[in-house]
Design brief:
The protein has 293 residues and is mostly helical. The chain has a single domain (36-287), classed as Orthogonal Bundle (MetI-like fold), CATH 1.10.3720.10. The chain has helices at residues 2-35, 53-59, 62-94, 100-112, 115-125, 132-139, 154-178, 183-191, 196-207, 209-224, 228-233, 245-255, 259-284, and strands at 38-41, 44-49. The longest helix has 34 residues, at 2-35. The chain is globular, with a radius of gyration of 24 Å.
């Protein structure tokens, strides 16, 4: 009995975390999933069970498919270039380049800027008449662009801004991962005649596997739930060209007051994230290298 009580004491340490997750994560997901099968809007103030009606409406809604397309483009184009450049910058800085502290601070600083301030800064940068991008385009003889006002460029403008905002955060994680790799491995490879590229290909990339997996999962979650910059810079426009799934959930829930559709979208988002994470762990989890053989 005493042993059982002694072991139970350890579970008390994780109890606050479990309560927090249960109240603010698991319960809202279960509640939203249940609500996705009900009609709840201004015309139906009390939730009414309608089965798959909300999902059927979404399937036949062209805006929903456009939002999914925008989300897929945003996630794909945002994640891989950001991860690549973050890793390259971390490797270069880790190799004792001159002014490394300056580079760390300058690259990481955008992460510290509040999203509202960062969004306003980039609204000014993208300004058709006063923005620095259009001024530079005019100086080299190219036409000015309506970065946020055109359906052809609005989503890409948000992707560039998000890349700038997240690059330093991922670079710092990679930099921390590089500190766990023994320098003796590089010295041994150098003495064996391995060049710069071969040393990183054989040592750095494999041993950064756990860090890369963590960055990949974190990047997926961050890009799927992007909201602030869209709300502040484009509001999903023009013509839903920069609308993504989280902002579309916000529109349906708080602008159109259709909580049934919003809950169905939330359930789809959670399901997609869960499937992606399981696929990533299933494919890459067992291939991660934690130490050199």
């Amino acid at each position: 009995m005493k042993r059982l009580i002694f072991k139970f004491r350890y579970y008390l340490f994780i109890l606050p975390g479990l309560i927090f997750l249960g109240v603010f994560t698991y319960y809202p997901i279960i509640w939203a999933t249940d609500l996705s099968f009900k009609r709840w809007n201004l015309l139906c103030p009390k939730p009414k069970f309608v089965g798959l009606e909300n999902y059927i409406k979404l399937i036949h809604n062209d805006v929903f498919w456009l939002v999914l397309k925008n989300t897929a483009i945003f996630v794909t184009v945002s994640i891989f270039p950001t991860m690549f450049f973050a890793m390259v910058l971390a490797i270069l800085i880790d190799e004792r380049m001159k002014g490394r502290v300056y580079y760390i601070y300058s690259i990481f600083y955008p992460t510290l800027i509040p999203m509202a301030a960062a969004a306003m800064l980039w609204v000014y940068i993208y300004s058709p008449n006063l923005g620095i991008l259009n001024i530079l385009l005019a100086k080299i003889g190219l036409p000015k662009l309506g970065w946020l006002g055109s359906s052809k460029t609005s989503l890409w403008a948000l992707i560039i801004m998000t890349f700038w905002k997240n690059l330093g955060f991922f670079m710092l994680i990679y930099l921390a991962g590089l500190q766990n790799i023994s320098k003796d491995l590089y010295e041994a490879a150098y003495l064996d005649g391995a060049g710069w590229w071969k040393r990183h290909y054989k040592i750095t990339f494999p041993l950064l596997g756990p860090t890369t997996l963590f960055v990949f999962i974190t990047a997926i979650i961050l890009t799927f739930r992007v909201f602030d910059q869209i709300n502040l810079m484009t509001e999903g426009g023009p013509g839903n060209s920069s609308n993504v799934i989280v902002y579309y959930i916000f529109e349906n829930g708080f602008k159109f007051i259709d909580m049934g559709i919003a809950s169905a979208l939330t359930t789809i988002l959670v399901g997609v994230l869960l499937i992606l994470v399981l696929i990533i762990f299933g494919i890459f989890g067992k291939r991660i290298t934690y130490e050199m053989e």
